[in-house]
Amino acid sequence: MQAREAHDLQESMPGLGRLSDPREFQQMLQTQGCDAGVLLAHYRSMLSIRRAEERIGQAVEEHQVRCPAHLAIGQEAIPVGIAAHLRRTDRVFGAHRSHGHFLAQGASLHSLFAEVLGRVTGASRGMGGSMHLWSGSHGFGGSVPIVAATVPIAVGAALAARMSGNGDIAVVYLGDGAFEEGVVHESLNLAAMMKLPVLFVAENNLFASHLHIRQRQPSDLLERFALANGIASALVDGNDVVQVSREAKRLLEQCRGRPAPVFLEAVTYRWRGHVGPKEDQDVGVDRQDDLVNWRRRDPIGRLGTALVAQGAATQSDLDAIAMAVDAGIEQAWTQALADPQPPSGQLLDCVYAKPAGNAG
Ligand SMILES: Cc1ncc(C[n+]2csc(CCOP(=O)(O)OP(=O)(O)O)c2C)c(N)n1
Ligand SMILES: [Mg+2]
Fold first, then answer.
1. Residue 220's domain spans which residues?
2. Measuring from atom 19 of ligand 1, which residue has the nearest CA?
3. Which of 33, 227, 243, 326 has its CA 20 to 30 A from that of 7?
4. Is residue 218 part of a domain?
5. What is each CA distance from 241 to 36, 43, 141, 328, 359, in whole angstroms?
6. How far is the CA of 222 from the centre of ligand 2 (A)?
7. pLDDT tens string 84-119
8. Number of folded domains in the chain?
9. Which of 164, 209, 187 is nearest to 70 (CA)?
10. pTM of the entire predicted model
């Protein structure tokens, strides 16, 4: 018999290595062999998500938006790279930081803005706010504030998708902190044992509110949980939309074809505090030095530089995209602001389900 000491084991556990070092991977993306039109569309989508979140952040500071708003600025490449390979009939779930997940599915800026402003035209009729986004027609099955709550729901949706027999799948975005919830491990196990078509997207931004992952887990590598459950996986720089898209495509083909669960770990960083627009808000953690470097590892800037360097676009093309994005943001914001709030008499209408057949 051979005894294993916990200390030695933890020392030798595989980790993220260079991927978690913000001084690495700052150079422009490798885009050889990629379709220029697709890359420009990715650039535009990422920029639109960023500008939308900046607009929401500004409105939080001005007390125009009253709901808590968790911004994913810096993490845009992940949903954009994945959504490119999804069908409208797939079943996608987010969490508390899901503006980008929602918009990448093609849901409208107006329905997001109206929701965070509490307008009746919002994604949840203005009743939910930033963490209760939903758009059935875009395959977005919902986001919720309870960490990990959508993970077992996505596994159930994957079972329903498999039973429908049409090749649809489920996708769930979950953070590194969600892996500290038991239900995530039950979900991975069940999906593996039942061979359910679900893509688990582990958005490893290294933090759960103010705590770095190394203060919470014996390894910063989340992919180890895929390995433990026999689930096919990939580990990517989550700030590289080309890598995210390539690996997501490969995994999704496996997921639909077999069907079987798959797992994508994307390493990234959020630039703002855990909640709200401030950069220096995370209690007890000095992130400022790292943030300087993570800004250089910007998913949008790195793609823009590559597009210009490789002749796929000029700087004035990118400027024109930015102007069009800004115009779209301003138009959607103005429209949402002008929309009415729900009447107070409807306050409880979205809280309790009415029993079938009961008109009262
Ligand atoms: C069950 C549960 N526990 C705690 C919280 C409080 N909480 C909200 S977000 C969060 C951190 C989640 O971190 P992570 O999953 O890494 O997502 P990120 O915020 O980094 O996107 C916590 C602890 C919660 N909402 N739900
Ligand atoms: Mg996190």
1. 34-338
2. 208
3. 227
4. yes
5. 13, 9, 23, 23, 49
6. 11
7. 999 999 999 999 999 999 999 999 999 999 999 999
8. 1
9. 209
10. 0.96
